[in-house]
């Protein structure tokens, strides 16, 4: 099938790669000329494992191309994906301006039947909004061309987006016509996953409700972790025991410093805003937000309790991306922890395998190290903030020798307490104290 994907961020570029792998002809569209130039050379402007080689293979095969010309892309495509950003506004509402802009452009250039697919995370009613804007522009041209707007939300996890696109848990399609339904069935006929077909409004809500539920699990286990911290209980053991219950499952029960990234904070806020507009009190989700917002402050308070004070102390912060295998720092816990540490009087030396200058631009007061060993040199304490694999494989005995003091704060609960204590650390985890405390 002939497909245009408008937007070349994490979702758009991964969608383009996975559809190209499935045998479709894809053209990626973006208004950023520099980004298009890079992609046309097979250079990925973001860090997402496995995607760049696929892009290069598809470019070489001639089944993938990139352009800034949306009109040209529409002429050669039967299916149009809208995969632009929908960042939060100050009131929590998703900013639909980019989606609206694309809809208006489609209305200017559409010349035959197309299936327009909302891939971006958008509030309930956006498919109707997109349809109305396209019709508005067609009327200006004096044309009446048949088309369908479909909601097909993405469920990609950064760091493993291509894997999720290749083998999704489910494909949700919201459509209003038999023709659109048949097109979507053909589009995904080679993907081995349950295809759930519903209405556009239902599909839009499924995406928000799914992300909000996962965020709720994270906030729940973080609140349990705080209680475990007071009662000398290991939250990792509690989570394992809970996860064995098939009704609960083990996923998203890892206590830590809170959820971040481009999806969970934005989507929980968006769902709360939808509730406000509909005059429905979203009390659980508001508590989810409050717990998540409070978690970094609580963690720094625990650091102060363990170290006596952070004034004049040197802290090595390991990990800046919001999760491993990505360079995304949107709503990253590190960005919430750094100002709290600085306000408490600490000096911060940070290291991340991928992220560097982005955070330095935001917080010029911090120091950036070339590796974890350099970050830990003469440090009073280490704060493990992102569980990159290379951090799990460090020579922790050597790290300890480089430090001034021996405090280790495992904000992701990924390190072995016995091994860290054997290496000479005074270990603290989230709801998971070491034996020396």
The low-pLDDT segments are none
Helix content: 40-55%
CATH architect. name of the largest domain: 3-Layer(aba) Sandwich
CATH class call of the largest domain: Alpha Beta
Radius of gyration (CA) equals 24 Å
Beta percentage is: 5-15%
Overall, the morphology is elongated
Question: What is the mean predicted local confidence, pLDDT?
Answer: 95
Domain unit count:
2
As for the CATH topology of the largest domain, it is Rossmann fold
Structural class: alpha/beta
Q: Total number of β-strand segments?
A: 15
Number of helices: 18
CATH H-level homologous superfamily name of the largest domain: NAD(P)-binding Rossmann-like Domain
| Distance between the ends | 62 Å
Largest sheet: 7 strands, mixed
Q: Which strand order do you get reading across the main beta sheet?
A: 11-10-9-12-13-14-15
Structure in a nutshell:
This protein has 437 residues and is of the alpha/beta class. It has 18 helices and 15 strands. The N and C termini lie far apart (62 Å).
Question: How are the SSEs ordered, and which strands pair?
Answer:
Blueprint: E1 2-6, H1 10-21, E2 25-29, H2 33-40, H3 51-61, E3 64-67, H4 70-75, E4 79-82, H5 97-109, E5 114-118, H6 126-141, E6 147-151, H7 161-166, E7 171-174, H8 178-187, E8 195-198, H9 200-231, H10 235-243, H11 264-277, H12 283-307, E9 314-318, H13 333-343, E10 347-351, H14 357-362, E11 367-368, H15 372-376, E12 381-384, H16 389-392, H17 396-402, E13 407-410, H18 417-422, E14 426-429, E15 432-433
Parallel strand pairs: 1-2, 1-4, 2-3, 4-5, 5-6, 7-8, 9-10, 9-12, 10-11, 12-13, 13-14
Antiparallel strand pairs: 14-15
Helix pairs in contact: 1-3, 5-6, 9-11, 9-12, 11-12
């Amino acid at each position: 099938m002939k497909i245009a994907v408008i937007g070349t961020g994490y979702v758009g570029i991964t969608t383009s790669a996975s559809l190209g792998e499935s045998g479709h002809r894809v053209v990626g569209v973006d208004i950023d000329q520099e980004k298009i130039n890079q992609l046309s050379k097979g250079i990925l402007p973001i860090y997402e494992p496995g995607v760049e080689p696929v892009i290069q293979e598809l470019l070489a095969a001639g089944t993938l191309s990139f352009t800034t010309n949306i009109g040209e892309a529409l002429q050669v495509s039967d299916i149009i994906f809208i995969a632009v950003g929908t960042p939060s506004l100050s009131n929590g509402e998703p900013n639909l301006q980019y989606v609206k802009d694309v809809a208006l452009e489609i209305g200017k250039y559409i010349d035959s039947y197309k299936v327009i697919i909302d891939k971006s995370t958008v509030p309930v009613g956006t498919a109707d909004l997109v349809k109305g804007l396209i019709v508005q522009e067609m009327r200006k041209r004096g044309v009446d061309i048949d088309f369908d707007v479909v909601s097909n939300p993405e469920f990609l996890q950064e760091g493993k987006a291509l894997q999720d696109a290749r083998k999704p848990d489910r494909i949700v399609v919201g459509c209003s016509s038999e023709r659109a339904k048949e097109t979507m069935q053909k589009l995904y006929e080679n993907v081995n996953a349950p295809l759930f077909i519903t209405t556009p409004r239902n599909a839009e809500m499924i995406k928000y409700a799914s992300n909000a539920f996962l965020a709720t699990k994270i906030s729940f286990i973080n609140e349990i972790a705080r209680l475990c911290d007071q009662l000398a209980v290991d939250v990792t053991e509690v989570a394992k025991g809970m996860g064995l219950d098939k009704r609960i499952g083990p996923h998203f029960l890892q206590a830590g410093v809170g959820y971040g990234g481009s999806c969970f904070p934005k989507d929980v806020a968006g769902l709360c805003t939808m509730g406000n507009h509909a005059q429905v009190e979203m009390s659980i989700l508001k508590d989810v937000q409050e717990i998540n917002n409070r978690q970094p402050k609580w963690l720094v308070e625990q650091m102060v309790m363990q170290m006596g004070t952070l004034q004049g102390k040197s802290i090595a912060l390991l990990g800046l991306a919001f999760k491993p295998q990505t360079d995304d720092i949107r709503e990253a816990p590190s960005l919430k922890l750094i100002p709290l540490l600085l306000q408490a009087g600490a000096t911060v030396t940070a290291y991340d395998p991928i992220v560097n200058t982005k955070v330095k631009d935001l917080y010029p007061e911090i120091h950036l190290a070339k590796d974890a060993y350099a970050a830990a040199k003469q440090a009073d304490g280490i704060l493990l903030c992102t569980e990159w694999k290379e951090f799990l494989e460090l020579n922790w005995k050597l790290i300890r020798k480089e430090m001034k003091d021996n405090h280790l704060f495992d904000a992701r609960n990924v390190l072995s307490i016995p091994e860290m204590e054997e290496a000479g650390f005074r270990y603290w985890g989230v709801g998971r104290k070491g034996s020396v405390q």
